[in-house]
């Protein structure tokens, strides 16, 4: 079964990644102040785990809508929309994975 996702879900993932990048650019001074105030920002691992969980949830929702349609209780437009949303989310996660691997390989090529 092919998974699909909407541009909205892709933009949510890209937005989460850009917020993470902007936090990093804000500087350690902001992090030190937040740490002193007792406020913690999510780390990359937890953000990535949440995004993977969202992709899995979208795939499961897509399967539920497909089963509902097969039982004669669903709408074909809802099924197509759910499948395309799951596909875009999966494609986005694959793109992020490829970028992470590329960054890791570049770091490994750096001279010490």
Strand and helix layout:
Elements (H helix, E strand, L loop, with lengths): L6 H20 L1 H9 L7 H27 L5 H34 L3
Helix pairs in contact: 1-4, 3-4
What report would you give on this structure?
The chain is mainly α and 112 residues long. It has one domain (7-109). 80% of the residues lie in helices and 0% in strands. The protein is built from four helices and no strands. The chain has helices at 7-26, 28-36, 44-70, 76-109. The longest helix is centred in the C-terminal third of the chain and has 34 residues, at 76-109.
List keywords for this structure.
112 residues; mainly alpha; elongated
How far apart are the first and last residues' alpha carbons, in Å? 46 Å
Q: What helical percentage do the residues reach?
A: over 70%
Strand content: under 5%
Shape: elongated
Radius of gyration: 18 Å
Mean pLDDT: 76
> What is the structural class?
mainly alpha
Q: How many separate domains make up the residues?
A: 1
How is the main sheet built? none
> What is the ordering of alpha helices and beta strands?
HHHH
| Beta strands, count | 0
